[in-house]
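Q: What residues go here?
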């Protein structure tokens, strides 16, 4: 990109005051680097995700929706760590400096920045095939972040929200790129479960967000915690909208092996059962107990108490 065009573009679309005011910065975008102050008694949680056009989102989607999806996917990682959002950087690769795209994308960023109280600290803008790389930064009180490695025999296993919606939503968008129905929204604007993540700090023994399918992602908790699990298939939370659209076995397959719902999966000692139910009711967020942690490694799927075999394709893998 020509340099005047590039600097003007950055100023116009990525240095808007609404993107910079949520959480203070010593120095925000405009210098060679941002300067960020981590408050005393807090730790910085950092996570990055690259979203490539037509791999992670549809390039033809409205640009606001692309921005929403990119930030939501990153915010979900903070939720899974129990962190509060603070700042993000944005590395944007664009085929052309298309002003309609940039305005819509920037508006989507503003909406998310205001909704989730996060400031854009800086980034990079280059020409090439459309790809968006975000690094997100959040804060947790020292040594309270949720990790994947602490699940204990006897813990309950839960998932938030409904599973399988985003996969069905992507199919809806392939048919109508401007679809804004429930399932499509679950794809382009999944809700990062930040309040739940914060609530789980000091309670959950392990947590992650489901980005590659429940079976694969739960597998990460089991491996890193050196435990096994049983999961009861009839308890899988499926939304009424998903069930109305697809036969039951297909819904189950999407819920188990296709990710992208950005719901939290976590293990919780039984003593928290009642408090979790109260949280779920207060926040009007379904949270479902799907199984329990067992001492011997491996994942056992049960239907009506009988063991069933695992699907061969456990979840999404890029390679
Ligand atoms: P440099 O040449 O020093 O790497 P750049 O010219 O790439 O700096 O960027 C100038 C300033 O604009 C930097 O502060 C950078 O963080 C910011 N910036 C560039 N692209 C973006 C973007 N997409 N979003 C937010 N800030 C950006
Ligand atoms: Mg520089």
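A:
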């Amino acid at each position: 990109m020509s340099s005047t065009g590039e600097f003007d573009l950055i100023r116009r679309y990525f240095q808007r005051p609404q993107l910079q005011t949520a959480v203070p910065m010593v120095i925000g975008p405009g210098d060679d680097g941002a300067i960020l102050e981590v408050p005393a008694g807090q730790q910085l949680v950092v996570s990055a995700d690259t979203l490539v056009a037509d791999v992670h989102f549809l390039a033809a989607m409205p640009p606001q929706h692309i921005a929403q999806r990119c930030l939501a996917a990153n915010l979900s990682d903070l939720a899974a760590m129990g962190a509060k959002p603070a700042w993000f950087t944005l590395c944007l690769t664009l085929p052309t400096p298309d002003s309609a795209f940039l305005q819509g994308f920037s508006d989507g960023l503003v909406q998310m920045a205001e909704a989730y109280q996060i400031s854009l600290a800086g980034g990079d803008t280059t020409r090439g095939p459309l790809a968006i790389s975000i690094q997100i930064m959040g804060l947790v009180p020292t040594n309270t972040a949720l990790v994947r490695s602490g699940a204990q025999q006897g813990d309950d296993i839960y998932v938030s929200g409904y599973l399988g919606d985003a996969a069905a939503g992507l199919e809806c968008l392939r048919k109508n790129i401007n679809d804004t129905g429930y399932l499509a929204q679950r794809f382009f604007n999944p809700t990062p479960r930040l309040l739940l993540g914060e609530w789980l700090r000091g309670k959950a023994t392990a947590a992650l967000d489901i980005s590659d399918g429940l079976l694969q992602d739960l597998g990460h908790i089991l491996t890193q915690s050196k435990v096994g699990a049983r999961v009861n298939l009839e308890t899988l939370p499926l939304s009424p909208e998903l069930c109305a659209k697809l036969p039951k076995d297909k819904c189950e397959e999407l819920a188990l092996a296709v990710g992208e719902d950005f719901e939290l999966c976590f293990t919780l000692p039984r003593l928290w059962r009642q408090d979790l139910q109260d949280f779920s009711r207060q926040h009007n967020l379904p949270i479902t107990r799907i199984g329990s942690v067992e001492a011997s490694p491996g994942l056992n799927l049960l239907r009506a108490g009988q063991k069933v075999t695992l699907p061969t394709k456990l979840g999404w893998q890029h390679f």
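A: Context that may help when evaluating the design: The two ends are 32 Å apart (CA to CA). Residues 3-141 form a domain with the 60s Ribosomal Protein L30; Chain: A; fold (CATH 3.30.1330.10).
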